[in-house]
Amino acid sequence: MTLRAGAPTDHGAPSLVLLTHGDENGVSSPLSHARGVTEALGVSAGRILAAERARGDAGEVVAVPLGREGGPDRLLFIGVGAGDLKGLRTAGAAVARRAAAGGRVVVDARDLDAPAIGAFVEGLALAAYVQPGSGSAAGASEADAPVAGPTPDPIGSGPAIGDDQSDGDRPGGRSRPARVLAEAVLVVEDPADPAAGSAVARSLAVARAVHLARDLVNTPSLVKSPAWLADRAAEAGAEAALDVEILGSDELAAGGFGGLIGVSAGSPRPPRLVRLNYLPPADAPLGSRHVVLVGKGITFDSGGLSLKPAVSMAGMKTDMAGSAAVLGTLTALAALRCPLRVTGLMVIAENMIGAGATRPGDVLTMYGGTTVEVLNTDAEGRLVLADGLAYAAARLQPDVMVDLATLTGAISVALGRRTAGLFASDDGLADELSRAATDGGERVWRLPLTEEYRPAIDSPVADLANIGRALDVSGGSITAALFLREFTAGIAWAHLDIAGAARSDSDDAEITKGGTGWGVRTLLEWLAPAADR
Question: What whole-number distance in Å separates Cα of residue 92 and Cα of residue 200?
Fold first, then answer.
């Protein structure tokens, strides 16, 4: 990603992007600087857009082949809608997808201020993501899996972005298909403007964090054991100068982490708990809060003895999306100069069928001593999260805790595939996260912690049951959140149920098919908000 001055036609890219917007009558027209470009090229933008009945909606694309010697081969008129940050992200995503054939693109961004440039670059960088190829490592054993290194810039000019190559720097070492876009040049009024440069740097840092989360979510579970995921977290954490601690199965058993041990009992691949610690830079104004993020990390979820149907099991390599979001977030905090102390916990296990698997009716003792009757082994995410939350509350002395989890199918029924459910014990925290999601380009909807439903998770043989039993209230997402609240020790806490939003069946604006990396943008906007918002 490069910022340059001069005429947009002078930079030698095959595709030239001009931005358009719609008026109150739904008629598209170019932004002010773009009009001069089309006049210089001898093209009537007004006639072209009118002929295509263009409206200037966000992400609208009108492609015009030029067929001329020198200069760009084609114009892409890209709509920005009302020009808000959401519309600019969508416009950037449209550029990434439509400029693939040429590999390089020049964008006339002279009409955009720094926040608008940042949003456009973020959408472009996020949409430029391509899933790792299957490669030879897909059949490798855990011991043979290549070591992952740093994730490359999501948009750039070097071969790490544009070339089709074997890629040991992505999780699992699998080959990377060619990126959608090799290089993007933004023509701006002043390339040395520190506000614009800072906006671009922030957007690329956020996109790198989202790409890391997506890579991990999209890695097949044959490769992605709990040990493998913990090792990738250690490597990414070291690259980001985080302090990393990993607890193995012996340490977890000795420490009383009954949820992690019980969920993983049917798998030959033992669980892990990863703790990532971020401290603000010495010259940053120190924030007043210690924040703990807890991410569900089920590397594959068969449902255990409460076996899922085959159709429901097919996408369960993504059931660790909460942990991936926590890791992605922690790796970007230094680049964004987050002023808060932040600890990330990844509670990682595989939920399988085996001779030692936890049975319905078994009672597990969570970290801290709370006992839980397991009525459904497919409600396993709340068990590992209970260990993480109880550990954080007892040992880390946080001021606030937030967990992320692909927890309940019910949340997708209630809110669909683009909105996460938000539960919170503190109204102020709920408001903060809601604003951060909006500003970061994601969506949440707050749902209630309905106290009348709390008796549903009572048990006659334990302190709690892991699903509703004593009272038939339905509301599966609510009773799951009420279960988690039992392990927060009264600390301000929020739960993000991302079961719908963490996965996508198709590309949609900056969202890509597969793992979406949902939550990274919200958490980064919350922990290290952009100064211009």
Answer: 13
